[in-house]
Amino acid sequence: MNDVITRITMDELPGLAQKMFGEGQRLATLTAVDLGDGTLDLLYHFDKDLVLSHYRLTVPKDAVAPSISGVYFAALLVENEIKDQFGLNFSGLALDFGGHLYLADEVQNAPFCKLSLTKKA
Amino acid sequence: MARTILPFGPQHPVLPEPIHLTLELEDEIVVSAVPALGYVHRGLEKLCEVRDFHQMIQIVERVCGICSKIHAMCYCQSLEEMMGADVPRRAKYLRVVWSELHRIHSHLLWIGLFADAFGFESLFMQCWRIRERIMDINEATTGNRVVVSVNVIGGVRRDLSREHQTWIGEQLKLVEKEVLALKSTIVSDYTVKSRTQGVGVLTKDQAHQLGAVGPVLRASGWAQDARMLGYAAFDELDFEPVVEVDGDCYARLAVRFREVLQSVDLVRQALTRLPEGEISVPVKGKPNGEIITRVEQPRGELMYYIKGDDTKFLDRLRIRTPTFANIPPLLAMLPGVELADVPVVVLSIDPCISCTER
Questions:
Q1: Distance (Å, rounded) from C-alpha B4 to C-alpha B30?
Q2: Does the beta-carbon distance from A74 to B315 stay under 8 Å?
Q3: pLDDT given at position B214
Q4: What are phi and psi of B291, to 5 degrees?
Q5: Which range of residues forms the domain containing residue B206?
Q6: From A35, which residue of chain B is nearest by alpha-carbon distance?
Q7: Distance between CA B109 and CA B103 in Å, rounded?
Q8: Looking at beta carbons, which pairs linking B157-163 to residues 24 or more positions away fall under 8 Å?
């Protein structure tokens, strides 16, 4: 990695989002990576004055991750995209597309997973 | 007063690509907007698992037609850094030339479409006429008008002869002259001002908090442009980001208009300082590790995350395009806007939906 990634836990994420927002950090995006062992890496990329900082949260695929869209409204699209593509659920999404941001209603699989999950209602 | 729900898109005369907005209106004033996507999602990122990392150059070029060159450059830069390639300086300068030519034709295309959105057909026609000079340069120097496909991992696949450099210089003189002839219309015309000034305002704080990028961010007073990072040869060229402060549609138009002239200057600088030498180096090995790279597309900051595991296929490719970042700011611009101005505000972010959905 060309930049340092700081590892965080699920409990630390809401506080981190508040802290970064307070410091004037722009949310650049999130990246989800399927690790192939039943877990996903969620990478949170923040930017201030063209300097990026990154945080890595590793979560089981069947976990419910806290949404940061209540702090960073901009997170709502990418969190919905991750829900579509990797089947990961988020709690507290500002606008929840129910796993169908891109996918048609009849699609039940998470297409970006190495082993695809079938979504449950 | 009772509120009305009105669907905007996915097919609409001002939209070159499909996006749907559910508008909530009070009388003719927008109260809220909710986007719906998914009409052109292709899953291109997933293809990295079945196409080798060299073939992926052609895939990422097709994320977006208008800025294909810059997608490929960002992808190649990522792998070059990951694999320790020392890209020749001439290749870096050539990348600047084609990148800025892309920015010119993208902005001229957008100014034309924007003018068309408020019924200024002759301005649309003039912008697209001037743009043809850039498309001719692309065709003559790369063999293609839009998907120019010049990047390879380790440099570029085509060089510019001295004759081409001279001819590009002559064409740019004409482009500059013709663009400047439109300046009084774009900057001062009553129709343009009345349809864009004070419309779709995004404040400086909103722009930053909602993650705006590119001309949308700079039109709200932020001097931020990924070219300031000095990738390719930008660290050796004179460059200051174009900034406006009003945050309305007029400011976003003004930023892009000034950036056309700035890009003409950057191409000239790059051609004047173009060093002699090789245009590519062989790059051996396979990608291994993680990397994040940013470049500035015409629409704003483009981010590539790549994870490789020492095989010919990438483990993960994630592309964060500028329009994806500018949709939340768009949702903040729309409340308070008259229904008739919605197409103008939507177009003011220069939406590229094929980029957004990939």
A1: 9
A2: no
A3: 95
A4: -155, 150
A5: 3-357
A6: B315
A7: 10
A8: B157/B279, B157/B280, B158/B94, B158/B279, B159/B90, B159/B94, B159/B279, B160/B94, B160/B97, B160/B271, B160/B274
Q: What is the CATH number of the domain that holds B350?
A: 1.10.645.10
Residues of A in contact with B294 (CB under 8 A): 52
Exposure string of B96-127, with b = 16+ CB inside 10 Å and e = fewer, is bbbbbbbbbbbbbbbbbbbbbbbebeebbebb
Q: Within 10 Å of residue B206's Cβ, how many Cβ atoms?
A: 17
Give residue A121's pLDDT: 47
**Cα separation values, B220 from A29, B205, B331, B333, Å:** 20, 8, 15, 12
Query: Buried b vs exposed e over A21-50: b needs ≥16 C-beta within 10 Å?
Result: beeebbbbbbbbbbeeeeebbbbbbbbeee
Return d(Cα B2, Cα B280) in angstroms, integer. 64
ipTM over the 0.95 cut-off: no
Which residue range(s) make up the domain with A82?
Answer: 5-91
Nearest CA in chain A to B291: A1
Nearest CB partner across the interface for B291, out of A2, A73, A102: A2
The count of domains in chain A is: 1
A35 touches chain B (CB under 8 A): no
pLDDT at A59 over 50: yes
Could you tell me if A116 lies within 8 Å of chain B, comparing CB atoms? no
Residue A36 domain-assigned?
Answer: yes
- The string of DSSP letters for B283-300 reads --S--EEEEEEEEEETTE
CB B254 within 8 Å of CB B219: yes
pLDDT digits (tens, 9 = 90+) for B59-104: 999 988 788 889 999 999 999 999 999 999 999 999 999 999 999 9
| Nearest residue in B to A49, CA atom | B224
> Does some domain include residue A114?
no
Chain A hits for B209, CB-CB cut-off 8 Å, are 21, 26, 72-74
The answer to whether the Cβ–Cβ distance between A73 and B210 falls below 8 Å is yes
**Taking CB atoms and an 8 Å limit, are B46 and A112 in contact across chains?**
yes
For an interface test with A, which of B316, B330, B354, B355 has the most A Cβ atoms less than 10 Å from its Cβ?
A: B316
Q: Say how many CB pairs under 8 Å bridge A and B.
A: 80
- Identify all chain A residues contacting B313, using CB atoms and an 8 Å cutoff: none
Q: Does A42 touch chain B (CB under 8 A)?
A: no
The two structure tokens encoding residue B292 = 């994040």
The pTM of the full predicted model, rounded to 2 decimals, is 0.91
Cα distance between residue A84 and residue A119, in whole Å: 10
Cβ A3–B224 below 8 Å, yes or no? no
Task: Identify the CATH number of the domain in which residue A50 sits.
Answer: 3.30.460.80
